[in-house]
Specification:
The protein is of the alpha+beta class and about 120 residues long. It has a single domain, classed as Alpha-Beta Plaits. Helices cover about 25% and strands about 35% of the residues. The protein contains two helices and six strands. Strand 3 and strand 4 form a beta hairpin. It is flat and about 50 Å long.
Length: about 120
C-alpha cells in the first residue's frame, strides 16, 4: 500500500535558515534517511517544498477563482515536503515516519494512506 509521509517543521528552524556546517549536517541527515529508504526499496517519490511564503491559495467565490498569498493556517509548523512510500502495513509506514530527521527538533510527520482506486478495499 502507498502512504504519504507529510513533513511538518517550523520554517525558522529549517535548513533554509541554517548556514555552513549546521546546514550541511542537517542536509546530511536527510540524505542518509532518503538513501536508507531507497535502498530498502520503499521510496516511491518525494520532494522538498519552497518556504510557505512562496505559496498561493486558490478558492472559489461566487464561481470566480480568487488567489491569495500563502497558506493561512495559524500554526508553528509548515508543510515542508513529503515522501511517498510503499509499505506493507500502516505500522511499517509509521516506523519510517518515526525515523524522520525533523522529529528531534520538534517537527511532525503526518502519515496518510493513498486511495487506490483499482482496489475496492482502499476506500
Amino acid at each position: 500500500m502507498r502512504y504519504l509521509l507529510l513533513i511538518y517543521s517550523d520554517e525558522a528552524e529549517s535548513v533554509y535558515n541554517k548556514t555552513g556546517e549546521e546546514a550541511e549536517a542537517l542536509m546530511a541527515r536527510w540524505f542518509e534517511y532518503t538513501t536508507e529508504m531507497q535502498q530498502a526499496g520503499k521510496m516511491l517519490g518525494g520532494d522538498a517544498l519552497h518556504l510557505s511564503n512562496t505559496a498561493k491559495t486558490v478558492r472559489l467565490s461566487d464561481g470566480e477563482a480568487i488567489t491569495t498569498d500563502g497558506p493561512f493556517a495559524e500554526t508553528k509548523e509548515q508543510l515542508g515536503g513529503y515522501y511517498m512510500v510503499d509499505a506493507e502495513s500502516e505500522a511499517e509506514a509509521l516506523a519510517w515516519a518515526a525515523k524522520m530527521p525533523n522529529l528531534p527538533g520538534g517537527g511532525a510527520v503526518e502519515v496518510r494512506p493513498l486511495m487506490e482506486f483499482d482496489d475496492p478495499n482502499s476506500m
